[in-house]
Amino acid sequence: MEKLSEIQIRQGLSVFTNLTDNKLLTHLNSCVHCGLCAESCLYFLKTRDDRFTPAHKADIVSSVYRRYNTVTGRLFPKLVNAREMNMDTASEMVDLLFGACTMCGRCTMHCSIGVDIGFLVKTGRSMLSNMGLVPATLQSTIKAALESGNNMSIPVDELTSTLQWMEEELTDEVNNPEARIPVNEPGKNILYTLNPREPKFFPLSISAMAKIFFAARESWTLSTRMYDVTNYAYFTGNPGESKLIAARLWQEMDTLKAGKLVLAECGHGSRALRWESPNYMKAHFPFKVETSVETIARYLHQGRIRLDPEKIRKTVTLHDPCNLVRNGGIINEQRYILKRFIASFVEMTPNGADNFCCGGGGGQLAMSEYNDRRMKIAEIKADQIRKTGARIVVTPCHNCVDQLTQINVTYKLGIQVKTLAEIVADALILE
Amino acid sequence: MNWHHYFILACMGVCLAFCIYHVIRLIRLGKPSDYSPPAGVVTEAVVYSFTGAMNPAKKESAFLHLPTYSAGILYHLGTFLSLLLLLLFLSGMILPIEIRYPLMFALLASVISGTGILIKRFIKKGLRNLSSPDDFMANILVTIFQVMTILMLIRGEMFPGYCILTGVLMLYFPLGKLKHAIYFFAARYHLGYFFGWRGVWPPKQT
Questions:
Q1: Which of B:143-202 have CB within 8 Å of A?
Q2: How confident is the model over A324-337, as pLDDT tens digits?
Q3: What is the CATH number of domain A306-427?
Q4: S-S: B176 plus which of A2, A298, A341, B134, CB 3.0-4.6 Å?
């Protein structure tokens, strides 16, 4: 097995010494190894593998901290299970922190002490990122975003032609030539972002949101230079790369002089932009930001759009994306929207801030080497959906849409998976 | 004052010094500065973190493991009681017999809880794999401390032995997991701060 170089080890351990506040120190020293967090984790619940308990994942990070940063760990490493940072430890960290955690944060909420296990997992991922040990599949997604401006390396002309096609579809659908998908237009109220999955695989979700903007008579634009709401570097905890990716949307807002940045339906993208990017930039937002879920809820509340309650006759359930809901506080808005026009709406159990992850979070969908594990743990979400009896599952996250679509096939659920914009667009009443 | 008084006071001093060191380190590093605009009221969320969020009905770790959770609560209460009694013993105060008996029974329940947790850690494979020798040591030392407190309530002449064993606990306190007694409060604060800033806590009416 290859050995870690001294430089790699030093760079990995630097996360413990470059402290800017007491949060990391607190959580590294708080776990009492009670193991009561086990059942809050999809991986443990589905496999009953003790290695997958959240406490075990947190402990592998803390154990390295103890070895190099505590007196007991230096003098009596076996007493406190303090581990050397070597290739064995690093390999185990990669498997547990990248391959067996969606960073959903459910364990954090249920921890008997209050240890932010998700934060420790992210710290562990940062260490691995510093050491150059991020799984190649995930790192290649980041590389694509850094080099091309979007994580799927979609060329500008391909995007432009997709948008033109969608604009034609929209114009036909609403039978109004004023219905447009504006591009690179300065001085608009809203700069709307996209998840690159939309132009690549789900272009109809772009026209769905455009239809909502049209119905609300919104002044908005897309950018073909920088539109990617995702930030996969968030998943590796690499602040430099995260900042580079986030900075481009900040820059585009400045270039287009838009009033508000509206984040497309993407859980981690919303989290990385709304909550993390000001901290990457060490600056307050110079513009307004909201998620598209909040935008649609606002339109409904202000009476700018109306929805036909007769349109959707099937039973609908809602999947809460962890980054948007538990870690982002967008809990009621999507319910407010759906309850306004869905006759048969059924909640999953548990739901809201206590929801189970779909299994695709934390960059799992980008890491094909863990596909089998990802689909195994997804059975929990499949069972949740089945119990609701719903025929349509709505989720305001394209990442979750991908995972739920795969769950639908694997577990033969016979459901439709829709984004919030898509189901709202289906029921829009156009004047 | 006898030698065992000096010994226990010295051990308590060392323990206290380490605790102060940890607290000062936390204070000096300070809380994270978040540049994102908040979506909730942090103060309310921090209060909720120490109150509502600790409600066993709200935490899977509690309501799915009620016997262990209850044992843990009893055990911690027993530890706090033992610490309080340590101060009383050191002050030379003699408790009346009608108070000593209920205290002994309360501590006995705590010792049984602590022993139960220890046995669980030994016999459950998953928990054993998660544990380090420190986890066992911490549990054993605290349980011995509580047993010695019961014995002290029965026979005051156990005081020298009580002082030695309690002193060992005090010296061990800053070295391992027992220091979670300090970090627990910081962890709950951070949790409340995080979920409060993001408007998740206190829970919203859906």
A1: 175-177, 179-180, 182-184, 186-188, 190-191, 194-195, 198-200
A2: 999 999 999 999 99
A3: 3.40.50
A4: B134
